[in-house]
Design brief:
The chain has about 260 residues and is of the alpha+beta class. The chain has helices at about 20-25, 30, 35-45, 50-70, 135-140, 145-150, 155-175, 255-260, and strands at about 1-5, 15-20, 80, 85-90, 100-105, 110-115, 120-125, 185-190, 195-200, 210-215, 220-230, 250. Helix 3 runs antiparallel to helix 4. The N and C termini lie far apart (about 50 Å).
Length: about 260
């Protein structure tokens, strides 16, 4: 069993940018210029405007954040995906090191995580206290997790479930397996101080390498980050020394506004 603290000290290189839908609506017209022609086509396929804004926010925020960190124009940045849908960044200049990225959105938030020399996944979930927890737990949770959730006071059971869910989605995004993977094979535990433990993952012999961050963002959303250092030979071709001074959680409002004011 590996235990991890609920702060960013173990992941000082990770920067997690958070944008609200109202910020994205405000800057929508300017941010659309960041999308490629293929991204614009996908953007238009979403039927609901909020879903369009979430997609726009994820792509735009990746490009702006990577541009800021790498010192290049956002127009030089392309977002590609693996066969399982894991996003990564491509730029023309192979001499510039680029960070690993992960994108998530739910409810009112769009979240983008970046980290050098790492494999990472981020997830955000919106609390829904009206869900049928027993049905969801039977699909998502291991026996250990179900037992822990059922021991919690009734008023806390939904929060305990969402803590497990957001951690699993972050982890499966990091590994590149995606959300179609068997989430029940994983077993997480979260104590009353929000310290996270990965109790079980039969398919990973390196569970001790993972760091986890769990944050209740605004009373309605939970954010989780799963990360570990990249191993030799992994897809992260431009791995570099960890940067120590990037803030952990960053409100994206200024970054969005700065770009759109120049348009």
């Amino acid at each position: 069993m590996t235990t991890h603290t609920n702060d960013m000290q173990l992941n000082q290189a990770a920067a997690i940018w958070v944008a609200r839908l109202d910020q994205l609506r405000l800057h929508r017209s300017g941010l659309l210029s960041l999308l490629s022609s293929a991204e614009l086509v996908r953007h238009q396929r979403y039927l609901q405007q909020d879903d369009r804004d979430r997609y726009l926010g994820g792509r735009a925020l990746v490009k702006l954040a990577v541009a800021k960190i790498c010192g290049i124009s956002p127009g030089e940045i392309f977002v590609a995906t693996t066969a399982t849908g894991k996003p990564f960044v491509l730029i023309p200049d192979k001499n510039i090191r680029v960070p690993a990225i992960s994108i998530s959105h739910a409810g009112d938030l769009v979240v983008v995580a970046l980290q050098y020399a790492a494999v990472l996944g981020v997830d955000v979930e919106l609390f829904n206290h009206d869900v049928n927890l027993d049905d969801l737990m039977s699909v998502v949770c291991s026996e250990e997790e179900i037992a822990e959730i059922n021991l919690a006071p009734q008023k806390n059971r939904a929060k305990k479930f969402y803590e497990v869910w957001v951690l699993k989605e972050a982890y499966l995004k990091a590994t590149g397996e995606g959300l179609s993977a068997n989430a029940r094979r994983l077993a997480f535990s979260v104590d009353t101080a929000s310290r996270v433990s990965l109790l079980r993952n039969p398919e990973d012999d390196n569970g001790g390498e993972w760091d986890f961050v769990l944050r209740q963002h605004d009373g309605q959303h939970l954010i989780a980050l799963a990360s570990r250092k990249a191993r030799s030979g992994e897809w992260l071709e431009h791995a570099c020394k960890t940067e120590k001074n990037i803030p952990a959680f960053i409100d994206a409002g200024d970054l969005l506004g700065e770009y759109c004011s120049l348009e």
